[in-house]
Design goal:
Length: 426
């Protein structure tokens, strides 16, 4: 890759920002090399500051399900900006987005908008503790729920990628309130519930894991969590920051027919701008200030520009045929990767749900964090750069998802399959 301008910018960035990035996963720490500094995006493509262009299967880690600079999103943001960027007061625009989400997501009767997925999860966990009067939370090894202290325990995504699944700076006393079970292993959940009877406020889960790479729930897993949570008097929280409006208009809970008590959202509901949300049963959400005793707040929560982008995005996704189109493109991408693995004799396990997928460099199956962690991350790094050199941009980590969007064409996906065969063939 010839990217002198990115290299110069990366040196400048490192002088003022830790690691030169505002989020560790962007640093290419796991794959090596200099991250291309992106100048602009349009549709399924991005261009870096050196003029290289890439078909983008990262999609900003999930939000860009419509592709870059979608006209309806751009116009909505421009219109909102012309009216002012923030008021710290209620606006009709935020009500509109909240109404769309309540209408779409089965579990959500009331919701609060925030500015990130981390905030959504942090707040949902606090509400669950307030509602149940219990302190412990059960999460899953390899699931990532943002960077709130209690969630940075055996976390996936960048935490796993950079080898810090349990972060420094999280006091033992905080970490002790987070219990960790194994994904797709109901026995491990039951054992923890038994060992901590009446102490667990909530089970929080990525209903389709995206942060160990894509790992779908085994048949019965989500239904089992629903039953175990009810038996234990704990709330069930679905972290749908990735899967919300990604795997179905109503999220994974609609796709799999399991309704949690609380849902966390982010990414797509902001259409590429900073929006998160937590919501669920009215009796639980009535714990939230100013209605109830559990405090939660945010200067820019429901920001007019961000909710305008999110509203435009969800309105576009509500159109008929959306999820069939995403499914078809996802299936084509999977088939292309399988063909490339076959043609080059590469041991590749591909997991996919709709338009999110991961190619694991391992024989497979990949059903748990341990399976995913057994992947050859060195081979992944070589594959990543082989794709990048061929104009295809995917996540710079084995423990992430790739995404297709409504802006991708069958030609884009075919180009990626060809690039994959080249990258695997060395
Ligand atoms: P944010 O705070 O990054 O908006 O959302 C945190 C979060 C919560 N829950 C799930 C299931 C998530 O996937 C995320 C964030 N995802 C990562 C990548 N998988 C964000 C990328 C980054 O950290 O820069």
């Amino acid at each position: 890759m010839d990217n002198p301008r990115s290299e110069a910018l990366f040196a400048r960035a490192k002088a003022v920002i830790p690691g030169g990035v505002n989020s560790p996963v962007r640093s290419f720490g796991a794959v090596g090399g200099t991250p291309p500094f992106i100048a602009r995006g349009a549709g399924a493509r991005v261009w870096d500051v050196d003029g290289n262009s890439y078909v983008d299967f990262l999609g900003s880690w999930g939000p860009l399900v419509l592709g870059h600079a979608h006209p309806a999103v751009v116009e909505a943001v421009q219109r909102a900006a012309a009216d002012g960027t923030s008021f710290g007061a209620p606006t009709e625009r935020e009500v509109r987005l909240a109404e769309l989400i309540v209408a779409a997501v089965p579990s959500i009767e009331l919701l609060r908008l925030v500015s990130s997925g981390t905030e959504a999860v942090m707040s949902a966990v606090r509400i669950a503790r307030a509602f149940t009067g219990r302190a412990k939370v059960l999460k899953f090894n390899g699931n990532y729920h943002g960077h709130a202290d209690g969630m940075l325990v055996k976390a996936g995504s960048g935490a796993a990628t950079l080898g810090v699944p349990t972060s420094a700076g999280v006091p033992e006393t905080y970490a002790a309130e987070t219990l960790v079970a194994e994904y797709n292993d109901l026995g491990s959940v039951g054992a923890l519930l038994e060992a901590h009877v009446n102490h667990i406020a909530a089970i929080i889960v990525e209903p389709v894991a995206g942060n160990m790479g894509v790992v779908p729930p085994e048949p019965g897993f989500l239904e089992g969590l629903r039953r175990l949570a009810d038996d234990a008097g704990a709330l069930l929280i679905f972290d749908e920051v990735i899967t919300g409006f990604r795997v179905a208009y109503g999220g994974a809970q609609a796709r799999y027919g399991v309704t949690p008590d609380l849902t966390c959202l982010g990414k797509i509901i902001g259409g590429g701008l900073p929006v998160g949300a937590f919501g669920g049963r009215a009796d639980v959400m009535e714990m939230v200030a100013p209605l109830g005793p559990a405090y939660q707040a945010g200067t820019l929560s429901g920001n007019p520009l961000a909710v305008a982008a999110g509203t435009a995005c969800l309105e576009a996704l509500a159109k008929p045929g959306t999820y069939e189109a995403l499914e078809a493109l996802g299936a084509q991408a999977e088939a292309g990767l399988r063909a490339a693995a076959e043609a080059t004799g590469t041991a590749l396990t591909i997991n996919r749900v709709g338009s999110m997928f991961t190619a694991f460099f391992t024989e497979g199956p990949v059903r748990t964090w341990a399976d995913a962690a057994g992947s050859d991350t060195e081979r992944y790094a070589v594959f990543f750069h082989g794709l990048l050199e061929r104009g295809v941009y995917v996540a710079p980590s084995q423990f992430e998802s790739a995404f297709v969007s409504l802006a991708h064409t069958t030609e884009d996906v075919a180009l990626a399959a060809k690039a994959a065969a080249g990258a695997l063939g060395g």
